[in-house]
Each structure stands twice: as structure tokens, then as C-alpha cells.
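I am writing to request your help with a piece of structural work I have in hand. A protein sequence and the C-alpha cells that stand for its backbone fold form the material at issue. Please examine both parts with care and let me know of anything in them that strikes you as inconsistent. The record follows directly beneath this note.
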Amino acid sequence: MSDLYARIAGIGAYLPEKILTNAGMEAIVETSDAWIKERTGIEQRHIAADGELTSDLGAAAARDGLKNAGIDIEAVDLIVVATATPDLTFPATATIIQEKLGITHGAAFDVHAVCSGFLYALATADNFIRCGQAKTALVIGTETFSRILDWTDRTTCVLFGDGAGAAVLTAESGPADGQGVLKTHLRSDGRFRDLLYVDGGPSATKTVGHLRMQGNQVFRHAVNKIAGSMKELADQAGIDIADIDWFVPHQANQRILLGVSKKLGIPEHKVISTVAKHGNTSAASIPLAFDAAIRDGRIKRGDLVLMEALGGGFTWGAALTRY
């Protein structure tokens, strides 16, 4: 019997209509366009409208991904949603998206790894497909981080935005021969949880809470852990870093993107960056950047793409795919 592997059939994206520029941030908190650009590379971010939910963003990205893949919604039998900003404590946002898409079969559930969430969701769906438990999967990263920001804290509120991205995976018969999702590499270390967290939750405080971060510490860990994960994954796959066509990183901060690329000797023109226009959209940032690079013609079919991220927990990892 032929082996099964997961092919990325299409990528989709959704960004809320409202745009908050750095100039707009100046009216909210003591900051400046120059200060934000110098430290993060961010110029603007999208903000969900009142009443626009994480599930709404995710469903829109899923529809776009299915359209780009040329696949009917009825074919979907698995939905894995990565989010740190669910609509409700429960049910899972994935089930809400399932209902909004009109799907009444298959399985839907959330994974929570914050900014690394899309990689965790991708690895999960890939394994479901490889073991024959799903044929068509929606992997969605969707966030409304504007809802958990402390808008008086200029060190964090300028960094984040809202958005959603989705990948459509289809089960294909092998041998894979270097196609589809080739390998994933996931790690976590809870000792660092106090460096990036939300100070509220149902069990601990009975509140939603706000995002808190020790930025300098996160930056240092991000560069080292991400670079290490990418190198280990490439070694496991038997691929030289120089042979990879595109790097699609989590869009946390332009300085982190450049720090990782410098550490691994990656030319800047191979690094897909959307942080200037999107800010940090957490679990949505990788598929949003992937989609942008497909739309502008950089990423093409057959290209070897390496994705990476680090999020609260800490969680981190990488994924190697041939698009």
C-alpha cells in the first residue's frame, strides 16, 4: 500500500478592514512612529471590528483557502484551529468555525501554543493525514489579540494585530518523493512561561487578563531557539539551509527575523516579512505571510519552504514543506 502524505493544496487569508497605523497609536499611548519602527519594523496593524470574532476571521480565511485550492467545503473532514484568543472558553473555536462553514461531519478542535500554534496545528493535521484518519484538513491560525492587550502599555500594545490565515491539506498517495509537508519539529519549555503570558484565566483569576511580556528576554530566546530548531529540522531532513527557497517566519519583530537569518546565514531576500503591514498576529502570522508571498509571485509550486515560530510557554518549532 502506498504511503500517505499531506499536500498543501491552498493557502487563504483574512485581515479586518480597520487599519491602525503608528500615527494612530500615538493618539492612544505615549509612543511615536519612529520609536515603533526602529524597535519592531511595524508600520501598521489590522484591528477586528466590534462584534467581529476570532471565529469570523478564521471562517473567512478558510473560505479563501478552499477557493484558492479549488476544493469544496463538503470535502473537509478535519479542522484544526490554532488560537490564543478563542471566542469562548468553550466550545472550541474550531467547532464554531465548522458551524459557520456549514460542515456537519468530521472533527474540529483547537490547539493552543500561542505564536507557535500554526506549526502545532499543521503537525497535528499532517499526522492525522499520514495515519489515514483525515483526507482533507483545514489548518487555521486566527487571532483577535487586540482584545487582550493593555492599551496603556506601550511596550506591548504597539506590537500586535488581528488576522487569520488557513492552509488546506489533502491526503495524497506516496511515495511523497519530496512533496507536501516533509517534516515538523516542535518543542516547549515551561520554565520560561513568565516571560510571555496573559495575567488572567478562568481557573486562576476568573478574568480574561492582559498580555505581559519581558521583551528583551523573549528576543534573546527567540533567536537562539528558533535558529536551533530550524537547523535541527534541516539536518533531520537531510537538506542544507542554503537549498531552501523561502523562509516564512512568525512575524513577531523585524529584528528577530533578521537575527535568525543572520545566525543561519540566510540571505534577506529569502525571508518573507509582512510584519510592517500586519504586526504580530500570533498564530495567524505564518499563513498570512505565506499567502502574501504566493499572491505576489514569490512562492511558487515546487518551492521548498521552511516555517518557524516561538510563542508563550515557551513553545517553538519549525516545519519544512514543498509547496
Summary: The mean pLDDT is 96. Residues 249 and 308 are 5 Å apart (CA to CA). The chain has two domains: 4-173, 180-322.
